[in-house]
UniProtKB/TrEMBL annotation:
This is Translation initiation factor eIF2B subunit delta. Residues 1-109 are annotated as: Disordered. Keywords: Cytoplasm, Initiation factor, Protein biosynthesis. It comes from Cladorrhinum samala. Gene3D superfamilies: Translation initiation factor eif-2b, domain 2. The keyword Protein biosynthesis applies. Residues 48-63 have a biased composition (Basic and acidic residues).
């Protein structure tokens, strides 16, 4: 009796014929006819690397496919040459879906895209994000991994704090670095050791201006190293240079700025400030240390709330404080002030100020009231090449306050006409220079002989 045959369901792989299976008990022979060639360690490493890249690509494709609306399932009504043509959806259709690759057969769990609610008009504005350690480049130093995670979660937030943490992490990278044979430190260190660290930190959070300036100077320092210099001496010179930058451009600069700005506070004056900035805080404490009696009005950032901490510190130091939790009633408070002291994240070549959101409102209100606005900022935060006329070109989106209804920018732009002077670590003119003199200050920094 002839055996009854049934067609295989659509999508079910055909069973191999007799010729496709090797003989029982006999291993399949290699294509070359001999024993399989053993792979060298380098080949095994390359194979493992290729498999890892393939898995990453598969996961990426899965996320992309899952983010899209899946197309409606058809029963093969328009599939030319396919088995089961014209058959309706049923058990066979379900079986076909079951035999699909796992990429489309099961939807993986995907984290919510935090940028999905941002309008296209603001799509160019970057935002900090947490990068899983498993996705970091293999050459990223553990110290840099730690710093990147702290920056992405805003545990290290201030621009100067980020700069110092970055430089100290780079010092660890340089300490552990060894130049491969046949290479020179001045040509190999930057592209193969430093650049992966920089890329990772930038991926965690957009680089601040101080970090960009310091990294540019560090690269120039490395490129100027003579290829014939011993590696130990070259590394020691770089570590000393990093210590010098931290001590002079950060710590000494803070001391000098606080001292110069404190000289601008008169007895009986009322100084208004916005939020909490470390340079402004150090200035008030320095003025109190000098024996001056004055009052402070704090207009706090309603989203950050740093002004509360500043108010507690100043009151403990014996400084009378008037605290306002937001910008409400700003005009009369500014009009009652003698001066306005503001901290800056960066100053551009055209004299405009990049600072915490809300700073521009305070500065414009002060100018309308005839009150001088003094900005405190280190020269490591000066940008000599770029200009800024709006708050959208160089900014960040606050990842903690990004919803489907709204989002918040971390910084705003204050044009130079609202700023009466800038206090830097330079002592010329009492450290109080007009914002338009930014380029002259930078030239003086490069050449001390320039008057």
């Amino acid at each position: 009796m002839a055996a009854e045959t049934h067609p295989a369901p659509a999508g079910t792989p055909a069973k191999p014929g007799p010729t496709a299976a090797p003989a029982a008990g006999k291993p399949s022979a290699p294509a070359t006819g001999g024993e399989p060639a053993k792979l060298t360690p380098a080949q095994l490493k390359a194979k493992a690397k290729a498999e890892k890249a393939a898995r990453r690509a598969q996961v990426k494709d899965a996320r992309t496919a899952a983010a899209q609306v899946p197309p409606p399932q058809h029963g093969g009504g328009d599939a030319k040459g396919a088995k089961g043509k014209g058959k309706p959806e049923g058990p066979q259709g379900q079986n076909k879906a079951a035999h699909r690759p796992s990429i489309t057969g099961s939807r993986p769990v995907i984290e919510k895209d935090v940028r999905s609610s941002i309008p296209d008009f603001f799509s160019h504005v970057p935002m900090a994000k947490r990068v899983p350690l498993s996705q970091a480049h293999k050459d990223v130093h553990p110290e840099v991994l730690s710093v990147g995670q702290q920056m992405s979660t805003f545990a290290v937030k201030d621009s100067i704090a980020r700069l110092e943490a970055t430089l100290r992490a780079f010092a660890k990278v340089i300490e552990d670095y060894e130049t491969p044979k046949g290479n020179s430190l001045s040509r190999h260190l930057v592209p193969h050791a430093l650049n992966p660290q920089i890329d990772y930190l930038t991926e965690c959070r957009p680089m601040c201006f101080a970090m960009g300036n310091a990294i540019r100077l560090l690269k120039a320092k490395i490129n100027n190293i003579d290829i014939n210099d011993p590696e130990d001496e070259a590394k020691e010179g770089l570590l000393e240079w990093i210590d010098t930058v931290i001590n002079e451009r950060i710590k000494l600069a803070e001391f000098v700025i606080a001292r110069n700005a404190a000289q601008l506070i008169n007895d009986g004056a009322t100084i208004l400030t916005y939020g909490r900035h470390r340079l402004v805080e150090k200035t008030f404490l320095k003025a109190k240390e000098n024996g001056k009696s004055f009052n402070v009005t704090i207009i706090d950032d309603p989203f950050e709330g740093g002004g509360q901490d500043l108010a507690k510190i100043l009151r403990e130091a014996g400084i009378p404080v008037l605290y306002s939790p937001n910008l409400g009633g700003l005009r009369p408070k500014v009009a009652a002030a003698s001066n306005v002291f503001l901290g800056g994240e960066a100053i551009f070549a055209n004299g405009s100020l990049n600072a915490a959101s809300g700073t521009a409102d305070v500065a414009m209100t002060a100018q309308n009231a005839g009150v001088k606005v003094i900005v405190l900022c280190e020269t490591i935060n000066f940008d000599r090449e770029r200009v800024s006329v709006d708050a959208l070109t160089y900014n960040e989106i606050d990842p903690e306050r990004n919803t489907a209804e709204s989002f918040r920018l971390l910084y705003d732009n204050t044009q130079d006409r609202y700023i009466a002077g800038v206090v830097t670590e330079f002592e010329s003119g009492g450290g109080n220079s007009p914002a338009q003199a930014i380029l002259a200050l930078l030239r003086k920094q490069e050449d001390p002989l320039i008057a």
